[in-house]
Design goal:
Helix 21 packs antiparallel against helix 22 and helix 22 runs antiparallel to helix 23. The chain contains 24 helices and 19 strands. About 45% of the residues lie in helices and about 15% in strands. The structure holds adenosine-5'-diphosphate (ADP) and magnesium ion.
């Protein structure tokens, strides 16, 4: 019997399950190779002249502006280091508004005119690049000027080496902007938001510092990203046009066994997957990405890996790089990594928890309650500021996780709802409620609470009860923002968090500054905290975020419930948001408005691609499969009739009728979707257009899927043209 491609691919699954055992463990220890491919402090010390090294470190550690006179020397050292590892090229690596990374590569080679060549890399080439930006999204900013874009070296994020089979490339993290200085990427606003937060946070810290306390020189954000993903066998992947074009299945009947038994979470990782993870970890460590955790996730064939937290820009760069490597290493292992938020209907989707805290150059975590009253006070101010910020800017935070992919996940009882709220844990919730009610004494389970004027709450550490349903949960000394989608860049959520926190801190700083000196020490600050918490307490929710009751309760509280991307985008371009980003020099009005346009466009493009792929698969794969099934059933009926007159063939006729009806329904659904693709709503405003487009395409795709999925359960297995769910989720 000749096997169909699907059957052949499924057959080879078992054989491939053994490849995991063939990966050999490298000779070098992790500590020997950690950071080997990063131009890190050790490499800088080795390759740079002493005075240049010191200046560069000051830029990296204290955020001092880079002295342009050392650029040539740094570039030369970087090149020598890279060439010593076999590099021939360098690239400016950036994060345009496509949501992924981009780069332009050049070789170091410079012909000398005598038929020979030398390798060169100048300070100018290091600090600035000019990629042709005309094909990258700008939301209309660039067309009014010119197509040129500039990349600018970000010395805070270390350069690294990318190895490909036939060469090595020195990769330089950069920011990307237009020649007028407009940001065209996600990193520029992130860097700017860090600066804004630093200024306002230090302002508050200075106001409440104790006599003799050393001033804080720098405040910055730390982020740890938990990355979820699915793996599937690569051969099966290539048999699914929907996975190839959209990253998710547009069709597929529910498998007989899905995640009902909860037997995948934290279970033993299959050998082939373990081999993949171990290979990936080695490569991540070599790139200085401190990957730490690995485990099975809830859905079959779903996994999670998380690094140790790092400063926000490095953490975001590292997460982008890690997503690249997930794809690259999966290929080597005959697997395909799916980063889509919802590859399979009926199985949990994938997210990326963004663990966020605020640190100082002195090593303090300002979101750590600490053990003494002074630490407590600092903590309470930063906590209060963040609570106020999240309440005031729910719209912004919601928008940072809005995407076509995440729309399938948020609010689907597997991920937080689209309603933004904060979970504090019962002890802190108690502290906050006692503060608000103004009670002088209150008992807490984790410890005593004094709310007298001179003594501040004793805040117990590590009393973080778990509430996995909350979108924004306090977890001991950080907040975990759980709504981001698995495929997205974390730059946007974090520049929003930094900016809204900066604003909130500034508001509190102004109130503290207005206090008479004596009151600053005697309870005035506590009153400001109390007032702010009272004003924003509606955002705190300790209960089950998946429950329907919460939706009703949230509405009563006046919280936003922006269910899908078009709704989330619809509230973005307000004077409040324009003014916020402009005030803190994070994004100008033009830059901000361009972003909504870009996100809407990309959302619509994703929908259009999905709709086209759905029509194509239905018309050229599933309809023919249905016709073949009908033919075979009809043949079998006539044969039976011919072989034996008077047989009762009613059940078989019913079967044939069902198939025939589904074929008609299929053709109708294809026609409907085709028609909607061909006649998109006429609307110029991108946000309004995305709402209309979604309203037309999404229901038509759902109708089509319903028919195809029913057909899948009727058609003979050997006639079904694409791998089924039960096969896609099998990786052993
Ligand atoms: P869990 O699944 O329990 O949330 P994980 O260990 O999977 O925990 O991930 C927690 C993430 O939070 C890690 O990336 C960790 O480094 C990060 N993290 C821990 N402390 C902080 C902090 N102070 N600031 C930011 N991130 C942190
Ligand atoms: Mg977590």
């Amino acid at each position: 019997m000749t096997l169909t491609p699907r059957q052949a691919a499924v057959r080879s699954l078992a054989a491939k399950a053994t490849t995991g055992e063939r990966v050999s463990i490298p000779e070098e220890s992790i500590t020997e190779t950690y950071g080997a491919f990063v131009f890190n402090e050790a490499a800088q010390r080795k390759f740079l002249p002493g005075n240049v090294y010191k200046k560069l470190r000051r830029t990296i550690n204290q955020g001092e502006t880079l002295d342009p006179s050392i650029a040539d020397s740094v570039a030369n050292a970087m090149k020598n280091w890279a060439v010593s590892h076999g590099a021939t090229h360098y690239s400016h690596w950036f994060q345009p508004m496509t949501g992924s990374t981009a780069e332009k590569q050049d070789s170091f080679i410079t012909p000398t005119g005598t038929g020979t060549a030398i390798l060169e890399f100048s300070g100018k080439e290091l600090t600035q690049g000019e990629p042709d930006a005309s094909s990258l999204p700008s939301g209309g900013i660039r067309v009014t000027f010119e197509a040129r874009g500039y990349t600018a070296w970000d010395p805070l994020s270390p350069a690294f080496l990318r190895h490909s089979p036939n060469g090595v490339t020195l990769t330089i993290p950069t920011a990307f902007c237009s020649w007028t200085g407009d940001a065209l990427d996600t990193k520029t606003p992130l860097l700017r938001s860090n600066a804004a937060l630093d200024v306002q946070a230090r302002r508050v810290l200075d106001l409440i510092s104790e006599p003799g306390e050393a001033p804080v020189e720098r405040v910055y954000t730390n982020v740890g990203a938990e990355q979820e993903f699915f793996l599937i066998d690569r051969e099966l992947f290539y048999l699914r046009p929907d996975l190839m074009a959209c990253g998710r299945t547009l069709f597929g009947a529910a498998p007989p066994k899905g995640q009902e038994q909860d037997d995948h979470y934290f279970a033993t990782t299959p050998g082939r997957v373990m081999a993949f993870m171990q290979d990936l970890e080695r490569r991540l460590w070599q790139l200085g990405i401190p990957i730490k955790t690995r485990h099975n996730e809830v859905a079959p064939a779903q996994y999670e890996m998380a690094p140790i937290f790092e400063s926000v820009t490095v953490a975001c760069d590292h997460n982008m790089l890690m997503m690249d490597l997930l794809h690259e290493v999966a290929r080597v292992h005959g697997l395909k990594c799916l980063l889509h938020e919802k590859p399979y209907r009926g199985l949990n989707g994938s997210g990326k928890h963004n663990n966020y805290s605020v640190g100082t150059d002195q090593g303090h975590n300002l979101l750590d309650p600490g053990t003494n009253p002074h630490d407590n006070l600092r903590f309470m101010i930063f906590l209060t500021a963040l609570i106020a910020a999240v309440d005031k800017h729910q719209d912004l935070l919601r928008s940072t996780v809005a995407s076509a992919g995440n729309d399938h996940r948020l609010g689907a009882h597997e991920a937080p709802p689209a309603i933004i709220s904060i979970f504090m844990g019962s002890d802190l919730q108690g502290v906050i409620e006692a503060l608000i009610s103004g009670s002088d004494q209150a008992k807490l389970e984790g410890g005593k609470l004094h709310l007298g004027v001179s003594s501040l709450p004793y805040l117990p550490r590590d009393t973080t009860d778990r509430n996995r349903t909350s979108p924004f949960a306090f977890t001991g000394n950080k907040f975990e923002f759980r709504a981001p989608g698995s495929s997205q860049s974390l730059a946007y959520p974090n520049y929003v968090l930094n900016t809204i926190l900066a604003e909130s801190l500034e508001i509190m700083a102004e109130q503290i500054e207005a206090l008479p000196g004596a009151e600053r020490k005697s309870g005035g600050v506590q009153n400001i905290i109390r007032k702010t918490l009272t004003q924003h307490q509606r955002i705190l929710f300790p209960g089950d975020n998946y429950a329907d009751a919460w939706t009703a309760e949230a509405e009563k509280r006046g919280l936003l419930n922006l269910r899908d991307t078009p709704s989330a985008l619809g509230v973005l371009n307000t004077p409040k948001n324009v003014a916020l980003f402009a005030k803190y020099d994070v994004l100008s009005e033009r830059e901000w408005l361009s972003r909504t346009a870009i996100v809407s466009e990309s959302y619509m493009e994703k929908l259009r691609v999905e709709a086209r792929v759905a029509v194509d698969m239905a018309a050229t794969l599933f309809l023919p499969a249905g016709l073949r099934a009908q033919h075979k059933t009809a043949d079998s009926l006539s044969a039976a009739r011919g072989a034996c007159k008077g047989l009762n063939l009613e059940v078989q006729i019913n079967h044939l009728t069902k198939i025939a009806n589904l074929i008609s329904a299929l053709q109708e659904s294809i026609d409907l979707l085709r028609e909607r693709i061909a006649n998109p709503p006429a609307e110029d405003d991108p946000v309004a257009a995305s709402k209309l487009l979604a309203a037309g395409l999404i229901p038509a795709m759902a109708q089509l899927r319903g028919v195809v999925d029913s057909l899948e359960t009727l058609v003979a297995d050997d006639l079904w043209p694409v791998p089924k769910y039960r096969e896609l989720i099998t990786v052993h």
